[in-house]
Amino acid sequence: MSGGTLAIMMIAVVIVIAIVVMSSAAERQRAEYLETWARERGWSYERERPELTYRFHGTPSGRGVPTPRPDTC
């Protein structure tokens, strides 16, 4: 590899790492904001609740166990 190619690859790696770090920081800040907002209203905020996927059927989760409904087509 030439020196120029290596330099471009290193710059690309630094940019990707910077994007990942900034994205992580933004997500952490968003979660903190939502936790504060919920706490002020007497609620709680949990970032992930995978068990809810199987509690509700259809859109938007659509991964739960389907339950036949006689009142739908």
Explain what the structure shows.
With 73 residues, this protein is mainly alpha-helical. It has one helix at residues 3-40. The protein is elongated.
Radius of gyration: 22 Å
- Main sheet characteristics: none
Number of strands: 0
Query: What's the overall geometry?
Result: elongated
Structural class: mainly alpha
Element order, helices and strands? H
How far is it from the N-terminal to the C-terminal residue, by CA? Answer: 62 Å
Please sum up the structure shown:
By secondary structure, the protein is mainly α. Helix content is 52%, strand content 0%.
Secondary structure: elements and pairs:
Blueprint (H helix, E strand, L loop, with lengths): L2 H38 L33
What labels would you give this structure?
73 residues, mainly alpha, 52% helix
